[in-house]
Amino acid sequence: MKQSQLFTKTRKEAPKGEEAKNAQLLIRAGYVHKVAAGVYTLLPLGVRVLDNIATIIRDEMNAIGGQETQSTVLQAKEPWEASGRWDDQVVDNWFKTSLKGGGELSLAFTHEEPMTVMMKNFIASYKDLPAYPYDVRTVFRNEARAKSGLMRGREFYWKALYSFSKDEDQHAEFYDKISDAYQRVFERVGLGDITFKTFASGGTFSKYSHEFQTLCDAGEDIIFITKDRIYNREIAPSAIPEDNKREEPKKREDKKRLGIIGVDDLVNELGVPVEKTTKTLIYNADGEIVVAAVRGDYQINELKLQALLSCKNLSLATEKQVQDLTGSEIGYAGIINIPKGTSVFIDDSIKGLCNFETGTNKTGYHSLNVNFGIDLDHPEKFHDIKLAKEGDKDPESGEIYKISKAVEVGNIFTLGEKFSEPLELTFTDEEGKPQNVFMGSYGIGISRLLGVIAEVLSDDRGLVWPEEIAPFTVHLLTFGKNENIFREAESLYHDLKNAGIDVLFDDRDVSPGLKLGDADLIGIPYRVVVSEKAAEKGGVEITKRATGEVEFVDPSRLVAHLTEG
Predict the structure, then answer these.
(1) 204 pLDDT above the threshold of 90
(2) Which one, out of 95, 352, 488, 499, has a CA that is 20 to 30 A from the CA of 401?
(3) Which of left, alpha, beta for 87 (phi over 0: left; psi -120 to 50: alpha)?
(4) Residue 316's closest CA among 325, 359, 362?
(5) Rounded to an integer, what distance in angstroms lies between the CA atom of residue 516 and that of residue 472?
């Protein structure tokens, strides 16, 4: 393509209000146009990169048995009602619309339910399994905040594959295959060295799922890294703190401090080290009121607590529920004076604490110098229900976690019978008995990947595309008004095209400085300059965008030089 024919233009500045680095660069370089927060039009250069990423993903999905479909954006509500996910209280990022003739539809944000319903037409026997349909398409999520450019969009392009297997063993075999395929995808798009498979919450589907997280300073996730395993912070196990020292027990003191209910205020007002405070919260777990406590310098990890309780719904208890249980106002909950029969879950960060502080479950009062075995019974068991933090150790290896910010670029889930049972997707097994299909779900955000690559592989001059996904392989520039030089550039342009090398030819009548600046900003892997100065040094000048390495090559050898590597 000749750059003079490209209708898009580069710009010196990004639009006001656009804070994300990836969006700033993609807008300035002419890859995307911002419509609204989290909504971007892909321009010709952006479409080429997106298509190249999608092609890689299709290659890898097809190689493991995936078959591409094209599901609808508009979705009927009935399957979602059957699975329990139509309610806005369950899924809070819907875009929904009403039909003129009556009834409701939604804009797709995922396809588990409609894909399950569709497969009822094609799965009847164990002989029909396994099956691996997938989509590459646009989906919509009504995000409360969309501030990270293409890394968090309200309208975005993705790949979603769904596996349908006869049992968990068949599913597990494919789960490993697609995990390996994902690793190949991220290597091919240039993120292999900084993308890691992490343990994440399996939610109500399974104990664990896995996410693929790319290290990124602008990422919204935090990952906890050891030599052998990596966890998303939401489930990272945390060893018992080693600074809980034995002391001679002191006599318990009840202190009245109305209005002092936060840990920081307790530390300041009561002169208690934060490591000797406790934090107690009261929850509603599927209708049962339970108590959970951690050491004051930690937070309760509600995902861990929910998994421990095996409950579907977990929320903080209401003010009335707290008062009914303890007789006190919110803010004075503690692990003493709890009514008998109440389920209490104490984090292992409190194990071994001596002379510690806790709320008394009495309005205005906190207790100091509380000790197990004296002021309250030892719990039958301590649990790990804390949110891991800096300095914590992995309980299995004993390693101190390395902590990094990251952005999720893919995920793989075991769904089991979560959707097949309510939507009645069954098959007849080898013995003629009906069984629920065992399912899995596997997503990659393609436009998010584009944004992540722009975010982490750019430099202070602009974008730096890996060769396999770049919009063009070569950016051909010519300087000056020498007709012979321009004709040579035109000839090389046609030679490159005829050799199957994608080339963007900057044939514009603008200054060399502008051309060089635009080339750096646009980020094509190889810049080839045809000029009198380059000719004096032995031919044409080739610069690798990623490294800045410069070579001079005879024009007759340019195609061979690029194709031979």
Answers:
(1) no
(2) 352
(3) beta
(4) 325
(5) 16
Return the residue matching tokens 């003129």: 100
For 286-343, write each residue's pLDDT tens digit.
999 999 999 999 999 999 999 899 998 899 999 999 999 999 988 899 999 999 999 9
* Residue 110 pLDDT exceeds 90: yes
Residue pair 182/375 in contact (Cβ under 8 Å)? The answer is no
- CA distances to 119, 149, 206, 274, 518 from 86, in Å: 20, 28, 22, 43, 48
Type of residue at 408: E
- Surface-to-core class of residue 512, CB atoms within 10 Å of its CB (0-12 exposed, 13-18 middle, 19+ buried): middle
User: For the whole prediction, is pTM greater than 0.70?
Assistant: yes
pLDDT (tens digit per residue) in 520-543: 999 999 999 999 999 888 899 999
Contact 140, 154 (CB under 8 A): yes
The structural domains of the chain, ordered by start, are 19-236+403-454 (3.30.930.10), 253-370 (3.90.960.10), 474-563 (3.40.50.800)
Compute the half-sphere exposure of residue 335: CA atoms within 13 Å on the CB side of its CA. Answer: 30
DSSP letter for 154, please.
Answer: S
Whole-angstrom Cα distance, residue 96 to residue 105? 6
Helix (H, G, I), strand (E, B) or coil at 142: coil
Structure tokens at 419: 């959707």
Scanning the structure block, which residue is given the tokens 């777990």? Answer: 285
